[in-house]
Specification:
The complex is a heterodimer. Chain A is α+β, with helices and mostly antiparallel strands. Chain A is 54% helix and 24% strand. In chain A, strands 1-3-4-2 form a 4-stranded mixed beta sheet. In chain A, helix 3 crosses helix 4 and helix 4 packs parallel to helix 6. By secondary structure, chain B is of the alpha+beta class. Chain B is 34% helix and 41% strand. In chain B, strands 1-4-5-2 form a 4-stranded mixed beta sheet. Classes of the chains: A alpha+beta, B alpha+beta. The interface between A and B is large, with 57 and 42 residues.
Chain lengths: 182, 109
């Protein structure tokens, strides 16, 4: 008995058989080392192009986040468990995002792990993901008309797909609407 | 059903605790999304397919938690936590858990 997903991956395998060797290696679940040692040039070419685009995107994303953060300044955020006396209603809200490295940085990180120490590329990635999740949470708060978010918590986890691995960052808290008692 | 992650419901009075409620779901990505993610992985950045998938999964986990609380005839869930864990390549577990509580009637302010 073959279900549809099997047929789908069969088709994929057939299509892959036509592809160049290095593409097959990438999809065949070989380790990064195998890919680099057998197909150095193509890997480096993809890596450099990817790295350039990734750097551009990262900068653009940072500028975009700056812009959104300015709009969200008036939503007060805290890790207090108390909602305040004038709180009228509260609902849990969250924001989440999955971010991944480009191919080239993944390679660099493999080397960096040999030496150990701070992995700057990862630090930047998680910081970027967390900031985006935090912004999304506050945007959700804005959308639902809350004026503050209390008991904010961050969690994250590693999300591994079949071909890439990424990090998920979540920010959640309780959105509070105040009735404006003074 | 009101869901918060603080210890009380703003503007309402909690009259009784009914115990722990939880909801969880394991989500897999279909291969098309994985292939898209592979190409996105060359340049990095947000993997939209996975983001959406996890948001859907999390909504489902919260919904299941609510159903669990409904069985206990709860009015609200407080102190909710959410977690994610990667089970195996291509699947994630999303979980939400909290305490189901009874509330005093709303007009009782």
């Amino acid at each position: 008995m073959i279900d549809s997903s099997d047929r789908f991956s069969d088709g994929l395998r057939k299509a892959l058989a036509q592809a160049p060797d290095w593409v097959q290696n990438l999809f065949g679940g070989s380790s990064v080392w195998d890919v680099v040692s057998t197909n150095g040039l193509q890997t480096i070419a993809i890596g450099v192009v990817g790295w350039t685009i990734a750097t551009l995107f990262e900068r653009r994303h940072a500028a975009y986040m700056n812009k959104r953060e300015k709009l969200l300044e008036d939503i007060s955020v805290s890790t207090n468990k108390e909602a305040g006396d004038d709180a009228e209603s509260g609902v849990m809200i969250y924001g989440s995002v999955v971010v991944a490295h480009d191919f080239f940085r993944t390679l660099v990180i493999q080397f960096r792990k040999i030496i150990g120490g701070n992995i700057k590329a990862y630090e930047r990635l998680v910081a970027r993901g967390r900031r985006e999740a935090f912004i999304r949470m506050r945007e959700d708060a804005r959308l639902r008309g809350f004026d503050s978010v209390v008991n904010v918590r961050f969690t994250g986890s590693h999300v591994s797909g079949r071909f890439i691995s990424a990090v998920e960052m979540v920010a959640y808290g309780t959105g509070i609407k105040s009735c404006g008692l003074q | 059903m009101i869901v918060t992650n603080i210890e009380k419901i703003p503007g309402r009075t909690i009259t009784g605790e009914l115990g722990l409620v939880q909801g969880s779901t394991v989500r897999g990505k279909h291969i098309g999304k994985d292939i898209a993610a592979f190409f996105k992985g060359i340049i990095g950045g947000e993997i939209k397919g996975y983001s959406d998938l996890l948001v859907e999964g999390r909504e489902e986990a919260i919904e299941r938690m609510r159903e669990d609380a409904k069985k206990l005839q709860a009015d609200a869930i407080v102190n909710v936590r959410i977690t994610t864990s990667s089970i195996t390549g291509g699947a994630v577990e999303l979980m939400a858990y909290g305490t189901a509580v009874k509330l005093a009637p709303a007009d009782n302010l």
